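Backbone geometry:

***
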Amino acid sequence: MIGLRREPSVLARGSRATGERVRAAARVRPPAVAGAFYPDDPAELAAAVDRALPAAPEGEPAPKALIVPHAGYIYSGPIAGTAYARLVPLRDVIRRVVLLGPAHRVAVEGLAVSGAGAFATPLGTVEVDGEARRLVLTLPQVRVDDDAHAREHSLEVHLPFLQRVLARFRILPLVAGHAAPAAVSDVLDLVWGGPETLIVVSSDLSHYHDYETATARDRRTAQAIVAGALEKIGPEDACGAYPVKGLLEAARRHRLTVRLLDLRNSGDTAGPRDEVVGYGAFALA
């Protein structure tokens, strides 16, 4: 009789766990900045992304990681396109994108992963890699925090670019707050994978300086990123400084070389020059 009484409780727990997994897989994180940072009409969005993509360069090594800006498309879209054009030859190779950016709206200690089963954009939904999520959650610096993802733009704005240049892929969406470079690189190491896995770190550069000041400051930051000089990159140099420094730490471990692809600011694209935001695109291979 004891066994009979225990068995239903075990089954019930299993059913609840299965139900929770099903509900998580069914949850779709809706777009938060469609119609603001980028067009909410699918045809207009596809056209905007395609306009921002230059011809794919030839003869370059396949990037393992990219650093890409995350502002509105009229401001940073051309710089982002410079990076994403490098993925066109890898359209059928990349199957997983580790997408890591700063948390702008919710305070995060360490890293926060989304609990959703997919992220939506006007171009469709992108599945979250549940296996990769379970893997990174074995580390103490990672937790599930859907509030940190609900209104965050730093990851969302990259999805339409990825949807246009890649065939089929899943994402691991992570935002970082105050996190040491080693804490971030340990997470990246767990999901490093092979050529099927791409890492995209989302970051703008300096904010709201005049054009000349920003140009000089961003040039110094870009030089530090290319040199892997983590100690020379501060939160005022890049809003994604913590993810960037974590990626650079991982690049050291994996002996990657960083290459500057594009360096401009909003004064070069669509904004005034009295207060600008800086944008850089980098490839790591």
